[in-house]
Sequence to fold (149 residues):
Amino acid sequence: MAVSARSLAEVEDRVTLPQFRMMVVLASRGASKLVDLAELLQVAPYTAMRMVDRLIAAGLADRQQSPANRRETMLRLTEEGRRTVETATVRRRAEIATIVQRLRPAQRLALIEALDAFNEAGGEPPASTGGGNPHPLGWTPDLPAQRDA
Fold:
């Protein structure tokens, strides 16, 4: 939680952690209907609408008419919203990589295996790339450790 909070420090006066989660969903899925966002975030549609209204007021999201159905409204990130997600994600990954580098290689391997098992149990696609390539989060189990003990 602390890593997430620190990664949002620059925009904490404009974005809460739940709002940022919504922004991440919009960044990864593209324009979405409110009901779909509410379902993905497991919140009531009214709660999702309030979150969207705040993101729009902050200039981070906007509404547009659906090209497929003129009666539907799609929600999407603005360019500033996309930059906010990218900046916070880069900051978060850098901090996580710093923390992971403090682990011994065996601990890193155990972490990767645990995260892969967690993803699998949650129905996510495999995260490891194998063959000594970096993990998608940016590290390998055999990175030189800052402290090998």
About this structure: The chain is about 55% helix and 5% strand. The first helix runs from residue 2 to 7. Residues 2-84 form a domain with the Arc Repressor Mutant, subunit A fold (CATH 1.10.10.10).
